[in-house]
Amino acid sequence: MNKISFTVNGKKHSISCDQAESLRSVLVRLGYQSVRDSDDKEGFAGSDTIIYNDVPVYANLMLAQQAEGAEIRTAESLGTSRSLHVVQQAMIDAGVVQSAYNAPAAALLLAWLLEHVSNPTRAQIDEVLSGIFIRDTGYEHYYLAVKLAVEKMQSGSYKSEISPTFRENLTYVGKPKGKVDGPQLVAGESSFVEDRVLPGYHTMVLLRSPYAHAYITKIDTSEALAMEGVVSIITHENCPDVFYMQAGQGNPEPSPHDRRLFNRKVRHVGDRVAAIVAETEEQALAARAAIKVEYEILKPIFTVEEAMAEGAPLVHNGVVEYRAGAPADLDQYNKSADPRDGKVIYQFPLHGDIRHNVASAAHGKIGDVEKGFKEADAVVERTYQTSQIQCTPLEPHICYAKIDGGRLVLHASTQVPYHVRRIVAWVCQIPENKIRVIKERVGGGYGSKQDILVEDLVGYATWITGKPILYRNTREEEFVANSTRHPMRVTVKMGAKKDGTITAVYMDVRANTGPYGNHCLTVPMNACSKTLPLLKCDNMKFDVITYYTNIPPTGAYQGYGAPKGTYGLMTCMAELADELGIDYYEMAMKNKVEPGYMLEILKGLGEGREGKVVPVGSCGLDEALTKGAKMIRWGKKEMSDDPDWKIGKGFAMIQQGSGLPGLDHSNAWAKLLTDGTFQIFSGGADLGTGLDTISAKMISEAFCVPMDLVTVTSGDTDSCTFDTGAYASSGTYFSGGASFLAAEDLKKNLLDEAAYQMQEKAEDLILRAPGEVYSTKTGKTLSYAKLSHDALTGTGRGQVMGRASFTTGHNSIPYGAHFVQVAVNVRTGQIKVQKYYALQDAGTPINPELALCQMYGAALKSIGHTLYEEMILDENGVCLNPTLGEYGVPMISEKPEDFQAVLIDINDEVGPYGAKSISEIATNGAAPAIAIAIHDAVGVWMRNWPFSPEKILKELGKI
Amino acid sequence: MIQEYLVATDTEDALKLKRNKNKSVFYAGGTEINRLNSKVDAKVAISLAKLGLDTITDEGSYIRIGSMVTLQKLVESALVPQWLKDAALFCGSFTRRNMATIGGNLALMSDQSYLAPALLASRCRLLTANLTEGGAYSEDNIPIREYHAYHQQFSGTLILAISLSKDSRYVGTKRFSNSAQNSAAVTVGFGATQDNEQVIDHVRVFTAVHGSSVQRLNAIENAIENGELTTPADVQLAVHQAVAALDDFVGSSAYKRYIASEGLAQLFAEFLKGGAK
Does pTM top 0.95 for this prediction? Predict the structure, then answer.
């Protein structure tokens, strides 16, 4: 150990450190928790950025020893949540503080920039942010944040518009008001799971399979168990014999229960073999190295084609059971089962056939597609392939669990706290009242935190050992043992008349679910259910089949199946337009749905049940298309000065849902506190997107009080009421809907109490600013504080509260169109996204500045999927690029040169204050729009994402 | 993984520490040594921070760039030629450019090197320090091609500075990767002179190929100097046949060969047009 001395944020420190210890580690030990880690020392994501002798550096890439005598600044130097730096406040106001895991680092960089350049250019901002990975908000509003900060510093106030506003009759809804948790997040204060860990915790590490497909024939943990500090080792031999699945979906779950905590058969490289709990991480790692495992290696399969092949190795060949709807020949079917494979338990029939690697299947149609194809003047049939994509949240999956009062308490970074509670209870075989889940701030989820990927194991280990346990995925584990986007092969057959009228559409979706069946029915079905209803066509048919393979696990990812389905459907329509010699835009306008059109196709597209046929409701599709076409100057051919660069344009119509009508359920309750302020308890899980801010606005709007007088408590299963969780674009619509109704219920009850206290009729009373009841009949007023005080005296009638649940059968579908202009270099295959215009109808955008940033973030993510990102496996199933840099996430240099998000103003009939969902849909447009633009530029159709330069060159015949 | 961190007091001290400490490495910016999955196998880091090697100076006929100069300082310096700034900017992260050094990048001579193809193409010289077998301190001034050709033999040598001649010479470099901070499939560097008689001389052609190495294409250099390759198309065809490449996750060997040949052909075309000096 060496002693080093340096200054941090003006304070001198002297501390002993190991010679190998990183500077970040020492800073965290000193309490500077804003210096976070997203990449395990890759030097990529920038969460560990500090200012070192007035130069931005990565603290993780420095040895602490280097810092002798240094002057260091961390984000803590800027301000606290109660006294923010102008840059931190501007970032909140611009909407870029969302999941915010590295927002403190970004604030530090921008503050440093403004210290050196008083009014920086976009290029200077690009440079400074080039070393920080922003996944959630797509960088664009960082320019606005800097502009706002400069204006504030120069004139004391903002001059620029932050975002458009909506609903002039409302005060908070539709207005940029900042995010309620923004200050604590941008200041780097305690927010995330890692910030809740108390001294004395134990560490869990996992031993993972080196093989893609194998039986564990022998596992010897005796030596490891005897090592110092080791508390417990869990393997397939001593884990509960409980089958479950990790997808946090509805109950009954539409995914098969096909795994235990540990299985005798490993099904992917990185699959769980053993969990080691020890007093320290070093002890756990040493014990892991001492575990001896013998395997019987099996032939793996990695693609849909391999899984479909006659005689293919079976990923699951265990006993099949059904909780409901078992087929009559099940005993016969199970005769060939291998008990070493465990079980696959279906909650209800999903048309799976594990003896042919089929996890699930679905089929449906309207009309007569064969008749439709015969009526067509042209028919095209094309196949589009998508790759395996990682969500890459900046905060890896993490869980900290402890026993408190005899109960299991989990601090989780999750989108679904109630599903965590249910699944952990099932795994531990204990009742739900013994478990409390506290959802902390979520440093990025994007769907992967809809799955219970670490909480199951940490919860069980804590329950059996009684020890507080922390587990956190490494970045490599994030790649190899986490939910990813399902690779899909989407074949689309489409026929149309000469005038472009579509006569029939057939979609054949073959999805690769990997080793386990998380979302195996619903993600692939989504490829059809969130695409086919865009088209007015009487003859449509789909077949969806999902296969088990030995790739790393798949699951939910923002957009769900829609990005893949949209890529296939829209690109095929463009190919058909090309075949017919008509304009693709004209064809889209001719075939797009309109308000009132009955969506018959939905009947076959329920998630494991019959869907409900509804008409198209609020719909901004037409406006998105017409406005977008005008912005991109559709039809005008652009030419580059450089003959090597060819320019093309494309677009795609998109839609999503707003939760799952008939399946999702949200609850909220609210109370008036004794001084007239408010607290609302939302079951919803804010994963950084501003759901808590929506809940606050529901109260503020209803009671005419500033948001600062409203406290939001959410995601705590002890204090809040049930919510299915933040997925399927349900947050604003369902959870926000429950908060809206709870506020309305509280309002009704408050008016009743006011009427009693004021001896007036409730219908004569209104609520008004600054927080009082006013009688329109007598002119009398009653403050909320006095009302609450009197209601809670010894003769009062009790606390004023409101509660509500939100369910609906209504489909509030968000629509949009994404337009793009690309330049393609015909000699190098390089692609530049010159213009990207995302136009979307979100109903009433409750938080418009956050909505815009989510559109930018989702669009840039999907540009990443389209052009750069891909998990690459070798012939043994080993992921060759499990780091952020090698995998290829887009950074600020990949941002479109002209990037615009536009909110189409449409008021929905059902959503809270007319709101629909916003973020998820924005991942759907890039792939087809860019594919179509590439064709417009250079005449080749890209049918396999990502569209790398190498693939472009191959299509161009250069290699 | 580094287990011991030592700060050298001067260059001789650095060389002695390097010689006496098993599994030791000169520690410049630390971005490669400390990073995830680093290929540097060392236990002792010998810091060069106190050696004063972090300046860029105009020495009249040449520019002297200390080996501890960061890539960002290269970008910001008025003394540094544009081709070297271009190469430094291949490191897409400003924060990493603040840490990574020209000497560190060159010493690695990796298939991912941002600077090596350009520096090699420039015919710069390296000011180095070493200890003789008897332990005496010595300095040397060597052509960079020598450092490349016998790289393994220079493992105990400390690069003090890079010396860039101010003589008129074309140098160009290109990097090909899917995204700015994704692994490069290929980075190429081309350098040459052309006199008033249009005679092409002192040609240098280098390419760093992912999964392979930093390759000097001597035959191409000679063929250009001899007038056997006169057009970009000639160069492209010849490079395509000469480059060694393997299939890996960054790209197929066919793609790497193609893009290396295309990149060098483009640089050759720029050179023929009298492009940037």
Answer: yes
